[in-house]
Each structure stands twice: as C-alpha cells, then as structure tokens.
Amino acid sequence: MADQEGSSLFDSCTFAFVPCNTLTCSVIAELSQSIARYGGQVCKRKRDGSLPLASITHIISNTIEFPEYDQSLAMMIPIVKSKWITASLTKGKLAQIRPFTPDPRMIFSDVMLSCADIPDNDKDTIIGATMAMGGMYSDGITKLTTHICALSMDHPKVRMAVEKKHKGKIVLPHWFDDCFKLGKRIDEGPYLLPDPEILRMSPGRSIEPQCSPYLDGAISARPDYMQPPTSQERVLHLTVFKDKKIMLSNDLEMRDRLRQILDGLVTGSGGQIIDSAQECDWLVCRYRDTEEYVQASQLRKTVGNMSWLFYLIQHNTWSNPLHRLLHYPEPRNGIPGFNDMRISVSNYGGEARIYLENLIKAAGATFTKTMKADNTHLVTARDNSEKCDAARDWNIHMVNHLWIEESYAKCEMQSVTVSKYTHFPPRTNLGEIIGQTFFDEKKLQALHFPGGPEKPTMPPPRKRKALEITDDDALAESASSNTAAGRQPRKEFDIMRDGDAETVGVDELPPPSNRRSTDFATPARGRHVRSGKENETPSSVASSSRSAKDKALGKLSNLAPDIALYEKEKKRGLKDGHGLWGGKRAADLIEREHLNRRRTSSPTAGDDKEPKSEKRPAKKARPTLPEVEIRVILTGFKRWVNDKHKEDADRKKLRDMGIAVVQDGQPCDYLIAPQLVRTVKFLRNLSKGAVVLSSTWIEECLDTKQIPDPDKYVLKDSENEKRFGLKLETSIRRAQKNSGHLLAGIPIYCTASIKNGPESYQAIADANGAQFMVYGPRSGSTIKVTNPEDDEGGPDPVYLLSTSTPEEKKLWKRFEDMARRGNMEPRVVASDWLLDIVMKQEVSFDEKYLVKNFFM
Questions:
Q1: d(CA 515, CA 697)
Q2: Same fold, 342-448 and 747-854
Q3: Under a CB-based contact definition with an 8 Å cutoff, are residues 44 and 75 in contact?
Q4: How many angstroms separate the CA atoms of 767 and 744, rounded?
Q5: Does the predicted model carry a pTM greater than 0.85?
Q6: What is the SS3 assignment for 393?
Q7: Which CATH architecture group holds 14-100?
Q8: Which InterPro entries match (predicted)?
C-alpha cells in the first residue's frame, strides 16, 4: 500500500474515466478520491462529451468501446482497467501498463502466472507467450498469482498453494497450448488439477454448448426487430446520440414507420438526422458499395448497419461497429470464392448457430441445415459428431468458426490448412469464444474505399514522468512476433522423413507417431524472463516504446507464415532427444546476440579511467545481405541431424553467399539429396522438374565458402537407380516435360485408414495433377458414369491405394462395384505404385502392384 495519504504517487498523472457496466459512477467517484488523495488529477469531459486527450496522461476504462480509443493509441496515451489504480496503490508505485489493458485481444491480460514442474523449454515458451499476450510472471506464488501451471499436484509450490488455500487456479500446460493455437482464451475448467477433465473423460463425450457474450445484439446484420432495451430507464434517458449527426442510407429499405421511430429517438436524445454523408458523424447503411458508404468511410466517419444502431439504442452506449462482424455493412456480392461453397454447421447451438448461418450467407455461401456429399465445408465447434464422421468419409473440409470469421473480417477466403482453423481442444466447445474477431480495417479500406485522409498520426512526444516509469511495451512486439500457434500432429509419410539416415519403403514403414492430441507442444517464446518476484523492465525503455503493443496485436493475427517453420522444427526436436521445439532455442540465440553486442559495445577494464561524458561511438551500419541467386530445398541431409545450432550457423553462411534454403512448396533451383530417396520433398520437387544435386555440393559450399559449379554435382546413384528401375536423368527430363501433369485427369482414391494416413500421398498426387480423394466406409459414389460406347480403347482405370488390413479389405468390393457402375476399370493397388510412377515420371501399371499380389 502507498506509504501515506498525501504522497506523490499520482503526482504527474492526469486521468479521464470511461463509464461502463463494470465502472459505474459510484466506483468512479471512489477512485477519483483516491487519485486526488495521492496527488493525481481527474479531468472532466468536454462539453460535447468527448475526452480531453490533449491534457490527460491515462485513460481508465474497462472496455475499448469508446470513440476516442484509436486516437488515444495514436497519441500513446495508456488505456488501463480500473484495477491498475488499485494495483498501483497496493505496490506503492505505478504498476505496469500491459497486464491491465482492456483490449480483449490481449487474452492473458488478467493472468499472473507461476510455473511448477514444467520442463525448461516449455516453461520459457509459456512465460514468453503469456507475457506477449498481456500476462505477467512471478517465480514465486503471491496473493496476485492467478494461475499455477503444473503437471501434477506433487510439486512443493502446488502443495504450498493447496495448504494455504490459495485462490489461484492450478492448470495443465495444455490449456496454454490450446489458447496459443487458437489465439483465443478458452475456459480453464477442463484443464484444472487435481482431476483434469481432458485426462479423465473421452474427447467424444458430449459437451453442452456455451453462450458467448460477444454475440449480444450481433447475430444478424439485418435484424427483423429491435430487442427491448436492458432497462426502461435507458429509453427515457437515451444519451448515446447526443450532439451526433446521423445519416440513414436509402439502401436500408426501411418502412416509414420505423424511420419515424428512429428519428424520434435520435432527436429526442439530442441528436440529428441528416442526409449528407460528408457532414454526418455516423452513417447507417446496409452495403459497402454505395456512394454514401465510400464517402463516409474515406472521411473516417463511423459506419455501421441497422443491427449496430439497434445495439446502441438497446444498451445506450457507443460501440465500434468494426469489433462485431455483423454490425458492419455487408459486401453486396459476398466474399470472392464463397459463391460456390455449400457450408453446414455442427455442435454450435442457440445464438451461435444463428450467427454462423447469417455470417455464411453474408459471405456469399449457401448454408445447409443438413449435410450431403455435395457440401464443401463443415463448420464445427468440436471434431466429434455424425456430421464430422460424414465429413471425413466424404472428404469435406472440417474447420472451426475462426475460418469463416477471419475470412469475412479479412475480406478474402482463408486457407483451410492454417492450423488454428482445424484445432479442436478436447473437452471444449468452441462456441464459448465465438464472435471475438475484429475487422481488418486496412483490408476494408484497400478493397472498398481506397484513398481519403490518413488516420491521425502520433504527435510529438510529450514529457510525462508517469509514462517514463511504466513498463517496456516494446518487448511485447518481439515476443508476439515469435509466438506461433501450433497445429495438430499430422501423420507422416510412410517413407523416410527428412533428417533420417536411410530410405524406407512402403513395406518397412515406421510406426505412426503415438503422440496423443493432448500432448503438450508450445510455440516459440520471444524474450528471456528473469526470475524474481516480478519481471520489472527498465523505465527508460518504456517511454519510447509505447506503440509496440499495437504492432504486436496486429502481428498476432498474421502468424500463418511462421507456423510451417515452427512445426518443422518441433518435429525435429522429437527426434534429437532434446524435447519439443519451443522458445528455448530462440531465447538462447537472442541471449547470445545480446551478449555479443554487450561485449563489443561495453568498455574494457582498462578503459574505466576514461571520462564518462565521452560519447559512445556510432554503431556500424549493419551489412546488407546479398541478393538470393540460388534457392535450394534439402531432403535427407545428414550434416544437421541432432545439431540445431550448427544448422542455424550453416544456413547463415549459405545466405551470406547468396544461397537460400527454402521450404518445401516454394520455387527452387535445385533439390539437394544424398541419394535417391522417396521422401515427400524429393517426389514433390522432382515432379516440378527440379535438378537434383548431391548433398556434397552443399558440403563444398560450406567448407570452402565458395560456390562450385552445380553441373559437376548432379546426383549420381546407380545403386538406387537399379533398385527402383529408373534413370534419374530421364526422370528429370520427363518431369520437365510433364510440368506437373503426369497424372492429370487420373482419379486416385486412398483409404482413410491407410497406414500413416493419406495426407502425404495426397501431397504427391496433387503435385502431379491427379484427382485425389479419400475413400471410407461412408463414401458415396463419386465417379461420373460414362457411356461404354465412348470407351474406344476400353474403360479408363481408377485406382484405390490400400493395404491388406481387414478393415480396408471390406472397402474393396464396394469400390470395385462403384467403378464398374461408372464404366471404369477398378485397380486396388499398394501405395508403392504411386511412389514408383512418380519417381519414374511415367504412368505405367503392373499387376504386381495389386494388393492381392503385393501383400501375399
């Protein structure tokens, strides 16, 4: 507690309050007295009701739903919850800003974390990512600790907390992992020790759908009626329209009676209805292509739809229409790409289901109550239901609501391969976090109203002693930019994984990963966390880094490019025996960089006698990297196995030479391999016609720091060429001629339960233009019936990749019948058939590949 009344704790602070349901007038009056008692000042609002931003240092608000929010961020004015005042009084000094932000996108802003028996790499990752998302960390357990992360109840910290009846929640690290993957905060209930539900109950057990508070008044863009206000007093004392000029667009197509009612409500509360988009403060319209919408948006007016207007009347409080997807005008023709989509919904109930139905229609897709084989997507809150089973059998994309929400918010269809769209935490119904997605205003502007004045820029920094002693928000940027949401473990291909030392055929497949969906894997952390009671940061950094939090928030929604790299590194961590890839490695590299900078910039012992007033020498300009001349993809490369640090150093050497090691799927000049291998990378890039070089070429580049002639290092492997019955030079020449169309028009099915899963086979088939489909017990007939008279050379073949397990044998007869009904020749083959023809880049068939012969 602050030492005494009359101290100067808030001496340099000038506050303004934003009332809301949790910050009432009585609470504001009480807090104002405390502020005055400790030397602070409280500013009153201007006559027009706006905040006096030019004369305040802090805004106390438990919500970001007030008109001056964006301008406050641009002016670097801290916006904190009312708890910040209490925390400052308790500590006797100004508390850090970041943990008290009201921004809901900082999902851990109320979390004070302490870790117990967590491995170091996962511990560092959890701490770094939690702090990047608004939380705090304390090594010990204090009265402020809200969450203790532990694997069991046996750790001394946990036992002590139980003995002292600590109110903090003891959670498994899986909770943090699932929150990181989704970018949203889910309920801790199923993860609470000592008896966590995720370990006690089957994921398939039913879960009651949860109601999300973010859907209040925002389930439809065009409501049929206005919900009654939450209290009659709000109708009699409506103030939300005071001194506001509002334009109701003609595209609303409302009845005269409704327009008269709205006119009466607005004018009765001190507002005005006008017909000019240029002079109005708020525009209410339905579509984004009207002249009024474009003009008002370019002039930075507040633009919302009828649902938003009804919400203001119901709650008598301002709300940003960009923060609720169905409070903003719709695109008249939907989102590009959605017109041909047929989407169904499962496991969402009540208002969440109605909201998703309306959002799907607003995006331009067709919503179907029941699901059939012609559906393209299933939006589900869990991955367990009859519709989910049918989606797997019919090869229908199965995603959670984040996919449709972010597609609508970013005005373009998002890829269903992004891991957070296909993540379904066990024992959690994702309906509890629905409706939290904000619009991407930059995308809206670029697509619908380009031009117009820029947003208010940050004014020259003012000297604020109060800000100089707050926390360092700049560190949040680096932490959040390195925080990647993980993805579900994917079954690997039956052939050699990159980094292994030998090639494995289909007949000697490695067992699939036995890692359960509940196993913990954490994303990379962004900063080192010092131990101690609290993690305090230097005050001198804070005042110059106020805008970093906003940059970090923007980056949290654009993590997709980092996910693939993170997952690749995480898998290698499983092999090398050092645990899962997390923030430990990134932190070590950052620490070494800091040490190197300190060693080069700090004075030596002999220089201590030099006058302290002498200026530091200017930093040398960082040398720019040369342009990338050669792009390579490596597979089966043995030099970096079990040595991550060596890999980083070698990659840097290569990049300094103009050689970039790119990820699979990106354009490359050469494919590097020690020998002929049947990895996914090798087969996919061979299909593109990439020239294959021996890994000796990379070794020479690294050892000599020169780039030898690649033509002298073309891979030669006569032993494996004989084994696979091919000539690599011929295969490359054929691949360049095929241009990825080796299997164009050829239908290839794959059993859903094939050993190690169908995903990698699909990657290879797709790279060669095949029509790849998964075939399961519920799969219907997907072969188009042709006229036998049109088959001059006999019926075309259709292939099913399968093994000889009893479960898969049951599918053969039905598949063959389906093929014959479509006048096609069924061929149930081992997956080696696909691998061999792709390796040879020539379509052929031999009866030895038929499963009845191959597995005999």
A1: 36
A2: yes
A3: no
A4: 10
A5: no
A6: helix
A7: 3-Layer(aba) Sandwich (3.40)
A8: BRCT_dom, BRCT_dom_sf, CellCycle_DNARepair_Reg
